[in-house]
């Protein structure tokens, strides 16, 4: 997988993110993508080759490995990283849509006109798109954590498993290679995922709180302006009637 391509795409998300979003992006690349590429893939590279069972029955070792490891940790984490980063592209696409509308508006009405004060400012539809992307990312994170725990019944890898699946002649003992090292990496990746979930939740509350504060501020400004100019609306009514 070309992780540089993914990094190039997500770097465009950084300039439209809040402080929590920038921290999330740093955690994803430093503590998840880099660890995944540099170390985790090598730890699981010999996973099936060094899965030993105390039997010579043909096919027993492969069947037991498939039974206890239906989905590799590496492939599951790769899917998780792809799924949790893709919703961020919704924001980039929405900003690109705004910029295209801005370009067409200026071409029609002149270069001095503006449709948006700032196409990347999170208000209106872009605010909802950003908020929805956070909910989707959080849902994917929690779902993959649940799937990982559901498949292996724990985040800790055992040193020995017992298998009696056909074609094994009886109950055989199978041994996992480097279980302690794999357990450490599993807990590290799970911890990084939990940190990302917490950052997403903090950003959701931050966006909602900022929105509420802005709406209250606009309401107070509107109320104060009406107190200062109480007859503005009536004058407008009179002018409209006379015209």
From TrEMBL:
Membrane topology summary: Multi-pass membrane protein
Database matches in PROSITE patterns: CONNEXINS_1, CONNEXINS_2
Summary of subunit composition and partner proteins: A connexon is composed of a hexamer of connexins.
Subcellular location(s) per record: Cell junction, Gap junction; Cell membrane
Instruction: State any single GO MF term.
Output: gap junction channel activity
Q: Which InterPro entries match?
A: Connexin, Connexin_CCC, Connexin_CS, Connexin_N, Connexin_N_sf
Q: Which domain of life is it from?
A: Eukaryota
Do the record's keywords include Disulfide bond?
no
Which species is listed as the source?
Lates japonicus (Japanese lates)
Instruction: List, alphabetically, the Gene3D superfamilies matched.
Output: Gap junction channel protein cysteine-rich domain
Question: Any keyword Magnesium?
Answer: no
Record's function text: One gap junction consists of a cluster of closely packed pairs of transmembrane channels, the connexons, through which materials of low MW diffuse from one cell to a neighboring cell.
Q: Which GO terms describe its biological process?
A: cell-cell signaling
Q: What is this protein called?
A: Gap junction protein
Similarity comment text for this entry: Belongs to the connexin family.
Entry GO CC: connexin complex
- Occurrences of domain Connexin cysteine-rich (ranges): 140-207
């Amino acid at each position: 997988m070309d992780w540089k391509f993914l990094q190039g795409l997500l770097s465009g998300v950084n300039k439209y993110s809040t402080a929590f979003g920038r921290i999330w992006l740093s955690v994803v690349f430093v503590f998840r993508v880099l660890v995944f590429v540099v170390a985790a893939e090598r730890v699981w590279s010999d996973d099936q080759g060094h899965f030993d069972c105390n039997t010579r029955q043909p096919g027993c070792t492969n069947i037991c490995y498939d039974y206890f490891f239906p989905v590799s940790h590496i492939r599951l984490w790769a899917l998780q990283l792809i799924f949790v980063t893709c919703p961020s592209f919704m924001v980039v696409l929405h900003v690109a849509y705004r910029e295209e509308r801005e370009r067409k508006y200026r071409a029609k009405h002149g270069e001095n006109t503006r449709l948006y004060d700032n196409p990347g400012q999170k208000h209106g539809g872009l605010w909802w798109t950003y908020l929805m992307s956070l909910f989707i990312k959080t849902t994917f994170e929690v779902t993959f954590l649940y799937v990982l725990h559901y498949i292996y019944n724990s985040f800790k890898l055992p040193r020995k498993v017992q298998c009696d699946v056909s074609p094994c002649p009886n109950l055989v003992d199978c041994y996992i290679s480097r279980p302690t090292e794999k357990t450490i990496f599993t807990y590290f990746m799970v911890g990084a995922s939990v940190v990302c979930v917490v950052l997403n939740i903090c950003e959701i509350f931050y966006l909602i709180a900022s929105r509420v504060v802005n709406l209250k501020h606009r309401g107070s400004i509107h109320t104060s302006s009406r107190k200062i100019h109480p007859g503005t609306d009536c004058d407008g009514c009179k002018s409209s009637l006379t015209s």
